[in-house]
Fold these 2 entries.
Entry 1:
Amino acid sequence: MPVKPDQLRIVHYPHPALREVAKPLKAVTGEVRQVASRMLQLMHEVRGVGLAAPQVGLPWRMFVANPTGEPGDDRVFINPKLTNPSPQTHPHEEGCLSLPHITGEITRPTQITIDATDEQGQPFQLTSDQLAARIWQHENDHLDGILILDRMPAIDKVANRQAVQDLEDAAQG
Ligand code: ZN
């Protein structure tokens, strides 16, 4: 069934799409470009810095990111692969557009390299030890069905218990 990009919306936990392992895209088609463009629009509407395809209900290995919010910094990552994580890690507070009102202190490698294909079908590689490195890791987790709920320390799980319950209740209708 063809995707209707205009109808895509950000889905919230516990939507089942957030727990699927997404599949690689076989080709960068016009449809893929339209979905990427819609995802960037949705991300900017809520002032996010990253959004993964499972967060709009699509089991595709693709995410968009923009660490600064400047239009020129929009970037599309298709079939991304992370390599060379630094042995140094650091904790930082993260939120998620699919987990409103929930934050947790997530420890991740400080520096990482990413290989991906852009929306023109061109492969590229980037390395970062800044906010981008954290965004890539957070968004790449979404492609494997992993949420910050799975990575946050126990103290944050306790602090977020009611917010998680509220989302589960909202999904029940
Ligand atoms: Zn997220």
Entry 2:
Amino acid sequence: MIEVCFVCLGNICRSPLAQGVFEKCVADEGLQDQIQVSSAGTGNWHIGSPPDGRMQETANKHGVQLNSRGQQFQPADFFNFDLILAMDDSNLSILEQMCPNPQKAENLKLFRSFDPENNGDLDVPDPYYGGGKGFEIVYEIVNRTCPKILEFIKTRVK
Ligand code: 4NP
């Protein structure tokens, strides 16, 4: 079993969407018994909360259900996950600071390092304080990047 965790700041917008889209990619390939998907935030404000309504609406429009509840990433989680994907550079910095050892740091990567259209921009923009278009932009980035992450993981599963 490979365990993957997507991490953003609040765990109510970007990482729940990445979890939902990635779960769909995994299910489409029948790999749900081999790959387990989760998400978390570096912050603690939204522990127990469902995803932001605007993110849910965007996801649902594209046929994706979001089922996560907010949780905060803990240092011990480095021992639970094989791949930890930070949605932006500030999330990555916080994760690096709580990482217990250099070996575990190898499991930590930026989500958009897998984005074929990143053009050098490695942050998924935080949509929380912006307008509706921000959520659609996040969806587009996540939707084209998740299949690439699955390709990467499949090279490890087999
Ligand atoms: P997320 O967005 O990190 O994509 O879940 C945010 C959600 C909430 C807050 C910030 C970002 N907040 O400050 O409460």
